[in-house]
């Protein structure tokens, strides 16, 4: 009898649980992170793992696999070599455009199968709490400085570096860019007064901002960050003005998108599109987005391809102008 | 007393059944690897590190540090019973420990070794408890020039103070620096020395290198020497323990001196090996009867063991507060911290209080539990050595391979480990020290980045390394240490000149 009930339940599960799809993973799914432990991508992967598990979105478990070697190039090469394997999914960010250009990594995102864009990351201009109080004063101080005016960031010839060059072009000020290993390190160095400013993502400077050790000058986006809950004693993310409001017309956002390896079937791709759509509806995801001050977005199919092509073009242009493209 | 409150908080974090159980497991594993020839502290921790990746950081580091204590205790067992130093820093322990065992006083020697290990560690832990809070506020002062100055100090002190031939230290260090450059360069964003290989993109993981250099090479050496493991039976009775403890106060000067040397060398990166030799030599120099050393004198066991353990323990302080490891094992623990996303440095004490004070509290508990455990289990561990080497060696090699693979889930790393095994074997044959190589592999990248960031920040001006009191002092000290042998000789020359003048 027990046996019979089990079989019936199993058949029922097969028939009713996922009626729309012909395919679902049969092995644990590996979520590949192109960064080290504790970084933004790792945290996002762990959030997804928790969201999928708690809400029973997938039968197979999800494991996080860190491939942060060579600034994430390890993860890209790993995905490229896993052609046709639908049990690996990459959390990508703008390194997919930048690394092939700056370090000549033999990789092209068009070789992978796009699933969905799930978030956009903001960049904020920060300075030490004892530094200039407005963007205008800050730019003036950078122009007037006799010693190198130091801007810290993560890695070389990457988002932070490109954004710094972008600012130089718009303002005519000159910065000395100091590449650190992580955003956390750039945050500590700003607190210690070893650099004048950084362009960290909100989450990277969150703790030192709450401790009142750094000041958020402006956010590099067309509109303010939408979250209005107080984060520090006096300010919410929404209280940070946009750089354009402050007279610095620079916008820059970084995608966070999911990719499967190349040459997977449409059914396999469809399963993940649906899975991540469901993930974005979970409370875990919404909570995470607010905590990290990420901009919500969900793009897939043609919209996503269009977005990627445009984003790629913009990044390539910036990289070329900055002279970051390896010959 | 802030430190005291925080310490109590640390004990609160720690006193759960799960943590205590992990502690016991760690200690037993540690003693086990300490007893096995060819393993020992750094290797044991390196191999067992991936096992802890699934745990939360506090449990993981508690278990790892207990493996470390266990290995420290275990190293003494083989030194005394078999004349095989399980660790480089146990070498000095064999000088008097093995003769004592031959005279049938093995139990006495073991008790002395364990007790002095305990005392050395305890002094160092007390030091950590009261210095740690100060170090964290101090450390925010560290920018790229300061970091570079400290790395320079580490490298220079290895060259200037090391016991090995200077040119060999430099060769070993240079090779390490060279290999540290493989992979992605943070400052330029370019790949270096990867020769188009996707496997080399990751760079050379120092844990893989360490497992090969120490573990595999030791097996190769043992195979060659057909080492016969002939041990002395040992059992420890309560009576012997008590009689050794009763004599302890007689040696307070030796214990104190060795503790001091150990702490000092642990915080400055001199290391436990130097500390144990220095402790032994000084005890001999200050003894009324230096001739009896080397013939089974209990003081000859107390001195090096206390110093080695004080140094091994206090080496954790610069590792936690500044991210600079004072010993090989501390360097491996440092790698472990980074895997868990804990960036050792000033903010570790601010951001991860639970973790840091949990660890410090675990040093107290681990030592007490370890002492009891080791005194009761000596006969069992000694019996491991009766297992034929032919059976033990393959097990060690397999555990090394698993360890190397698990770090990055890469098959390539196993080949790399074997390669490093051969390198380690050759290095030992031509007596090139391995420690500077490992050190350069761990710190090479950071030192290079710190130097280049300082140069960007100062616009290429070298005087940035003397731009304030802190960085200036460290840089100057580094250069003094580099040329220490010359300075020392010059001083000696001067005194010789002065003396005849007086006479």
UniProtKB/TrEMBL annotation, chain A:
Q: Matching Gene3D superfamilies, A to Z?
A: Bordetella uptake gene, domain 1 (3.40.190.150), Periplasmic binding protein-like II (3.40.190.10)
Pfam entry (one): TctC
Signal sequence range: 1-22
Q: Which UniProt keywords apply?
A: Signal
InterPro entries cross-referenced by the UniProt entry: BUG, Bug_dom1
Q: Which family does it belong to?
A: Belongs to the UPF0065 (bug) family.
Name the record gives this protein:
Tricarboxylate transporter
From TrEMBL, chain B:
Q: Which residues cross the membrane?
A: 20-40, 60-82, 109-135, 147-163, 200-220, 251-278, 319-343, 355-375, 387-408, 414-443, 464-487
Q: Does the keyword Membrane apply?
A: yes
Source domain of life: Bacteria
Coiled coil regions, renumbered to chain: none
The DUF112 domain covers: 20-438
InterPro entries, per the entry: DUF112_TM
The protein's UniProt keywords, in alphabetical order, are:
Membrane, Transmembrane, Transmembrane helix
Q: Which named protein is this? A: Tricarboxylate transporter
| Species in which this protein is naturally found | Bradyrhizobium macuxiense
């Amino acid at each position: 009898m027990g046996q019979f009930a089990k079989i019936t339940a199993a058949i029922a599960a097969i028939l009713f649980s996922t009626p729309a799809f012909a395919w679902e993973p049969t092995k644990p799914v590996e979520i590949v992170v192109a960064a080290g432990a504790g970084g933004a991508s790792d945290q996002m992967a762990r959030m997804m793992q928790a969201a999928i598990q708690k809400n029973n979105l997938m039968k197979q478990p999800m494991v996080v696999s860190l491939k942060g070697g060579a600034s994430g190039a390890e993860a890209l090469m790993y995905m490229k070599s896993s052609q046709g394997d639908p049990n690996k999914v990459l959390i990508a960010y703008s390194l997919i455009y930048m690394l092939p250009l700056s370090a000549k990594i033999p990789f092209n995102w068009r070789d992978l199968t796009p699933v969905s864009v799930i978030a956009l990351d903001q960049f904020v201009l920060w300075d030490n709490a004892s530094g200039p109080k407005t963007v205008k004063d800050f730019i003036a101080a950078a122009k007037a400085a006799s010693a190198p005016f130091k801007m810290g960031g993560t890695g070389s010839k990457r988002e932070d570096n490109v954004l710094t060059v972008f600012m130089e072009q718009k303002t005519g000020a000159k910065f000395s860019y100091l590449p650190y290993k992580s955003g956390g390190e750039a945050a500590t160095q700003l607190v210690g007064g070893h650099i004048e400013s950084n362009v960290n993502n909100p989450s990277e400077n969150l703790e030192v901002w709450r401790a009142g050790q750094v000041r958020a000058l402006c956010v590099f986006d067309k509109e303010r960050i939408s979250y209005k809950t107080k984060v520090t004693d006096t300010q919410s993310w929404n209280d940070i003005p946009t750089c354009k409001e402050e007279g610095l017309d620079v916008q820059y956002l970084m995608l966070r998108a999911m990719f499967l390896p190349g040459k997977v079937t449409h059914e396999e791709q469809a399963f993940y599109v649906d899975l991540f759509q469901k993930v974005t509806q979970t409370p875990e995801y919404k909570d995470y987005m607010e905590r990290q001050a990420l901009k919500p977005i969900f793009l897939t199919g043609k919209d996503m391809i269009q977005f990627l092509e445009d984003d790629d073009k913009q990044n390539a242009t910036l990289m070329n102008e900055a002279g970051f493209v390896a010959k | 007393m802030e430190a005291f409150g925080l310490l109590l908080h640390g004990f609160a974090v720690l006193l759960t059944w799960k943590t205590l159980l992990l502690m016991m497991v760690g200690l037993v594993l540690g003693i086990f690897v300490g007893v096995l020839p060819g393993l020992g502290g750094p290797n044991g921790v390196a191999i067992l590190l991936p096992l802890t990746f699934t745990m939360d950081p506090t449990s993981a580091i508690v278990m790892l540090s207990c493996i470390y204590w266990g290995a420290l205790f275990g190293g003494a067992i083989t030194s005394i019973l078999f004349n095989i130093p399980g660790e480089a820093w146990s070498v000095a322990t064999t000088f008097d420990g093995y003769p004592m065992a031959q005279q049938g006083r093995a139990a006495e020697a073991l008790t002395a070794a364990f007790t002095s290990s305990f005392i050395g560690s305890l002094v160092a832990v007390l030091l950590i408890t009261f210095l740690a809070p100060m170090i964290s506020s101090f450390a925010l002062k560290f920018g790229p020039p300061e970091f570079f100055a400290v790395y320079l100090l580490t490298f220079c002190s290895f060259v200037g103070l090391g016991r090995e031939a200077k040119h060999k230290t430099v060769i070993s260090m240079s090779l390490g620096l060279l290999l540290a450059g493989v992979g992605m360069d943070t400052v330029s964003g370019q790949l270096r020395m990867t020769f188009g290989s996707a496997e080399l993109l990751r760079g050379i993981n120092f844990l893989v290198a360490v497992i090969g250099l120490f573990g595999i090479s030791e097996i190769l050496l043992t195979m060659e020497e057909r080492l016969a493991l002939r041990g002395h039976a040992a059992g420890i009775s309560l009576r012997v323990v008590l009689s050794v403890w009763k004599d302890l106060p007689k040696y307070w000067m030796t214990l104190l001196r060795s503790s001091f040397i150990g702490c000092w060398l642990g915080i400055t990166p001199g290391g436990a090996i130097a500390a144990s030799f220095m402790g032994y030599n000084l005890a001999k120099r200050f003894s009324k009867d230096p001739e009896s050393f080397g013939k089974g004198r209990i003081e000859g066991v107390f001195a090096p063991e206390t110093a080695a353990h004080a140094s091994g323990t206090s080496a954790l302080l610069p590792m936690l507060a500044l991210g600079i490891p004072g010993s090989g094992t501390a360097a491996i623990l440092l790698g472990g911290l980074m895997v868990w996303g804990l960036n050792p440095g000033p903010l570790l004490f601010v951001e991860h209080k639970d973790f840091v004070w949990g660890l410090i509290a675990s040093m107290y508990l681990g030592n007490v539990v370890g002492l009891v455990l080791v005194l009761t289990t000596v006969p069992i561990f000694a019996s491991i050595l009766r297992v034929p080497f032919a059976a033990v060696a393959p097990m060690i090699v397999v555990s090394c391979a698993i360890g190397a693979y698990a770090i990055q889930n890469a098959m390539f790393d196993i080949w790399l480990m074997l390669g490093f095994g051969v390198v380690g074997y050759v290095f030992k044959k031509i007596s090139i020290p391995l420690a500077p190589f490992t050190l350069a592999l761990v710190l090479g990248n950071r030192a290079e980045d710190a130097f280049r960031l300082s140069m960007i920040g100062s616009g290429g001006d070298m005087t940035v390394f003397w731009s304030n009191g802190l960085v200036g002092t460290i840089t100057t000290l580094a250069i003094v240490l580099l040329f220490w042998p010359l300075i020392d000789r010059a001083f000696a020359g001067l005194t010789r000149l002065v003396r005849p003048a007086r006479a």
